[in-house]
Amino acid sequence: MVSGGSQFQQKKTGMRGAIAERLRCWMFYFYPCYRGTGGRVKHVAADWSEVQLELPLSRRTRNYVGTIFGGSIYGAVDPIYMLMLIKRLGASYVVWDRAARIEFLKPGRTTLHARFSIPDEEIAAIRAALERERSTNRTYSVELVDGSGEVCVRVEKVIYIRKNQAASSGGGSPSSEVSISRPSSEDR
């Protein structure tokens, strides 16, 4: 009887976890700019350490020559690393996209798949770097592969990160005060 209750609890937690993951994926579609890319977020880990997406070749993403439009490819991957870092680091940090580079290796003729990952060790390294420096730039890469596993596109993102000055100076609670700022010229 105890094991039956345990299985019920696991099933209940599993269902709750599945619903929570679905909501994390659907949140992307509430932003019209992301919805317009044609990208579909398929998995978001509970701790935001991993995101998986797919970008189908469709009427919406097809370019003039019948392959996936480069703007759709970049638009689908553009916000992912920044959002992952915002969610993983929390309100005590300011996170902005700094630069990007995209390399088209092969035309996307079928659905493309991407897997983004930021392990716990990277989060610890960012926090350690910001104990020594005012800000840091981190570079992340993601590859978009077709159904046969061939790399079609490689995207490199440079992300700017610093501690939130309002939170670090004790000037306000991160939960009650939001500070939005762009990297200044002195940070570059």
| CATH fold-level name | Thiol Ester Dehydrase, Chain A
Radius of gyration equals 19 Å
Query: Main sheet, how many strands, which sense, barrel?
Result: 6 strands, antiparallel
Q: Would you count the extended β strands for me?
A: 6
Tell me the fraction of residues in β-strands, as a range.
25-35%
Q: Name the average pLDDT.
A: 82
Percentage of helical residues?
Answer: 25-40%
Give unreliable regions as ranges: 1-12, 170-181
Structure description:
This protein has 188 residues and is an alpha+beta fold. The protein has one domain (31-187): Roll (Thiol Ester Dehydrase, Chain A), CATH 3.10.129. Helices cover 34% and strands 28% of the residues. It contains six helices and six strands. The chain has helices at residues 2-26, 32-35, 70-77, 80-89, 120-132, 165-168; strands at residues 40-44, 50-55, 93-104, 112-117, 135-145, 151-163. A six-stranded antiparallel beta sheet has the order 1-2-4-5-6-3. It is globular, with a radius of gyration of 19 Å. 19% of the residues are buried.
Summarize the structure.
The protein has 6 helices and 6 strands; from the N terminus they run ααββααββαββα. By secondary structure, it is α+β, with helices and mostly antiparallel strands.
Layout of SSEs?
Elements: H1 2-26, H2 32-35, E1 40-44, E2 50-55, H3 70-77, H4 80-89, E3 93-104, E4 112-117, H5 120-132, E5 135-145, E6 151-163, H6 165-168
Antiparallel strand pairs: 1-2, 2-4, 3-6, 4-5, 5-6
Structural descriptors:
188 residues; Thiol Ester Dehydrase, Chain A; six-stranded antiparallel sheet; globular; disordered N terminus
